[in-house]
Structure of Plasminogen receptor (KT):
Amino acid sequence: MGFLLSKSMDANFHKQQEFMLHNSRLQLERQIMMQNQMRERQMAMQIAWSREFLKYFGSFFALASVGLTAGALKRRKPALLAPIIPLSFIYAYQMDSAYGTLLYRMRGEAESIMESERDRLDLPQGLPTFESIEKARRAKTGLMSILEK
């Protein structure tokens, strides 16, 4: 009788372990999906910001170029055209960021860094551990209780 009860409990225990493993896997998959959706939304906002900034900067660049060109022709000073050069680089960068391949090139460079220069990504003092977080929490709690006295 005890053997049959033990065998039944063992089977239930294994089913419960499988169920818990399945649930934790689902929870992890959901967390990964949520984090990816948040990342995608942040990237979309960054691209939208670049495109909006480009509209304003493009207007400024056009007005500045026309004004500087008119001033250079009127005063016969070609030096007045000098600011157009750095402004054109900024405009080209913003155009590449908003509509070009800058994002793809950055992603490729990031992948290259992750593959060949992994040591550059290490955090100071390594990854936080449960013990280090607990130690900091206890130190802060102890400090708070001292300050309250």
About this structure: The chain has a mean pLDDT of 91.
